[in-house]
Automatic annotation (TrEMBL):
Superkingdom of the organism of origin: Bacteria
Keyword line: DNA-binding, Repressor, Transcription, Transcription regulation
Residues in HTH merR-type domain copies: 4-72
CDD domains: HTH_MerR-like
Name this polypeptide is given: MerR family transcriptional regulator
Keyword Oxidoreductase: no
SUPFAM superfamilies, per the entry: Probable bacterial effector-binding domain, Putative DNA-binding domain
Membrane-spanning segments: none
Pfam families according to UniProt: GyrI-like, MerR_1
Keyword Transit peptide: no
Length: 266
């Protein structure tokens, strides 16, 4: 076996960029010597260290911790480092399980939304729905995405993985009573994962209509619901709200959008 290897040989052997090896050297993790031609020459100790460094860096172990280990490598310190690795792996497994649950929840939400009866007016009995909201003075329809992002930023930790949650907006009461269906007073997130949050939408009967396509269809669909309520002697108990079951977070195809309008009933 050769006693030492040039940087290009080591980089090729490990599939690394030579700059990565130079960085490890700068950080005191590798200690190549200079050959007669001034090229870096890596010994067997460096080759062994690269295996350890790569494995630890993939787990996110800090460089200074790796340096301390390479400077004092004994069975005792190796066992101690293995304990740390196992702890890091356990945390990553927890994160991966959480991420998988979010992926599955998002898939379930999209599939359920695709099965919704588009264009069908229904009277539904719904339970209390908990969530988080942001109230502003008359949010225009084109400002809803911006308002939702503000709400997400305000509760970033709690709303992590929003793909599994429902987003929506509530019409502004004053504007609604004046016949204006383009202004909103509140945006919100709803979801089973927000159990400790306040009730945003109280349980009870709601008039519901799901429509497909662009949000420009909202005023016409909303008026259709209000006409239905009058024709069937149903008394409304509040402003209409929109729930965005499938939107730009899920598809670029407007025809695949699914938005539900709900109006609370007495």
């Amino acid at each position: 076996m050769k006693p030492s290897y040039q940087i290009t040989e080591v980089a090729r052997l490990y599939g690394l960029n030579p700059d990565t090896l130079r960085y490890y050297e700068e950080q005191g993790l590798l200690h190549p010597v200079r050959g007669e031609n001034r090229y870096r020459m890596y010994g067997i100790d460096d080759i062994c260290n690269i295996n350890v460094i790569r494995a630890l860096r993939e787990l996110g172990i800090p460089v200074d911790r790796i340096r301390r280990y390479t400077e004092d490598r004994r069975c005792e310190t190796t066992l101690r480092l293995l304990d740390e690795q196992e702890e890091v792996i356990g945390r990553k497994l927890t994160q991966l399980r959480r991420a998988r649950a979010q992926v599955r929840a998002r898939r379930g939400r999209i599939l359920a939304a695709q099965a919704l009866p588009v264009g069908q007016i229904r009277v539904m009995e719904l339970p209390d729905r908990r969530g988080l909201s942001l109230r502003q003075n008359r949010i225009f329809s084109f400002e809803i995405d911006y308002a939702l992002k503000k709400l997400e930023n305000r509760h970033a930790e709690l709303l992590r993985g929003i793909g599994s949650l429902c987003m929506g907006a509530l019409l502004d009461g004053d504007s609604f009573r004046q016949g204006d269906l383009t202004r909103y007073s509140k945006v919100f997130f709803l979801g089973e994962g927000l159990k400790g949050c306040p009730v945003l939408l109280p349980g009870g009967r709601y008039l519901s209509l799901v429509y497909a396509g662009d949000y420009a269809a909202f005023p016409g669909c909303c008026r259709a619901l209000l006409d239905y309520a009058r024709e069937h002697a149903l008394e409304t108990a509040g402003e209409p709200l929109e729930i965005y079951h499938i939107d730009a977070h899920d598809t670029d195809n407007l025809d695949e959008y699914r938005t539900e309008i709900q109006i609370p009933l007495m």
